[in-house]
Design brief:
single chain, about 290 residues, alpha+beta, Helix Hairpins, Heat Shock Protein 90, 3 domains, two-stranded antiparallel ribbon, 7 strands
């Protein structure tokens, strides 16, 4: 990419120099047409400059996308290897050692948790691909969002020993018209994202409430927070804050992208704001009358 940019800028300088040189020669050859030559050259240079800027932006965008895809492949590889290695170790231990029944059951339960992590990863990749290809229809039904939120929160709480997920402010029997599978994925991704960025032994607060016109779902963490200049980019596909080699939190860069796309299909909004004294709050707003 760097070599391509160097060649591009060299050609740009060469073309500009040639244009100016030919302009000088023409004005000397036909001094009576100097004004017309300068005017036409100026228009050409302006168009050339605009095209150059657009081309540079396109090349830079492609470069950033390439880096994000590279980071995505690195993170997916890690996300796959970690639970697979854990499952393999548990099963080898069960086979090679004479363990008590309680120990065997504990190892099997831990293996099932790792399998659920793999299942979540595959589901994220599947729904992201379907959204990208416009091949998912988002079949909607009237569903109990309160039960769905509690179910997802309880499930993810069982997968982590680092943070506490509280759902004490989830109102009962709140319903929305939506796709159960897609909304489950969106809710799961938001809570899991909060777990990843929340320090050890801190609390994640999950809220669900409503008024006459809207339903509100919030996930508040106590992590490092999100810089203002990053808030508009975190929902881009593959985008993650920091570098894959230096960041501590795991992930593929698909979670928040899926959340944003799912909510678009449900005519819902998502907002990100700072938590106090630290962390972030993700707020989803459903219109009760949207379908």
């Amino acid at each position: 990419m760097k070599k391509s940019l160097i060649i591009f800028y060299c050609l740009l300088v060469y073309a500009s120099a040639e244009l100016i040189w030919w302009g000088i020669l023409l004005t000397k050859a036909e001094p009576n047409r100097k004004g017309m030559i300068i005017g036409e050259a100026s228009v050409f240079l302006l168009i050339f400059l605009i095209g150059t800027i657009q081309l540079h932006r396109t090349l830079n965008k492609e470069h950033q996308l390439h880096l994000q895809q590279k980071n995505f492949l690195l993170s997916v590889t890690h996300e796959l290897k970690s639970p697979l290695a854990s499952i393999k170790l548990y099963l080898q231990t069960i086979l090679k050692r004479d363990l008590k029944l309680e120990q065997q059951q504990a190892f099997i339960r831990n293996s099932l948790k790792d399998l659920e992590r793999l299942d979540d990863l595959v589901e994220n990749m599947l729904i992201a691909t379907r959204i990208e290809n416009n091949s998912y229809s988002f079949p909607k039904e009237v569903l109990n969002l309160s039960e769905l939120v509690k179910k997802m929160a309880d499930r993810l709480q069982g997968h982590t020993n680092t943070a506490s997920v509280r759902t004490t402010e989830v109102e009962n029997n709140i319903t929305v018209n939506g796709d159960r599978f897609a909304l489950s994925s969106a809710i799961s991704n938001l809570i899991e994202n909060a777990i990843k960025y929340t320090p050890l032994n801190e609390t994640i607060f999950v809220k669900l409430y409503q008024d006459q016109k809207h339903v509100y779902f919030e996930v508040a963490d106590q992590g490092a927070g999100i810089p203002d200049h990053e808030k508009s980019r975190i929902f881009d596909k593959f985008y993650r804050i920091g570098n894959e080699h230096t960041r501590k939190a795991k992930g593929t860069g698909l979670g928040l992208y899926i959340v944003k796309q799912v909510l678009k299909k449900h005519h819902a909004q998502i907002k990100v704001r700072d938590n106090k004294p630290r962390g972030s709050i993700f707020e989803i707003i459903f219109n009760k009358h949207a379908g």
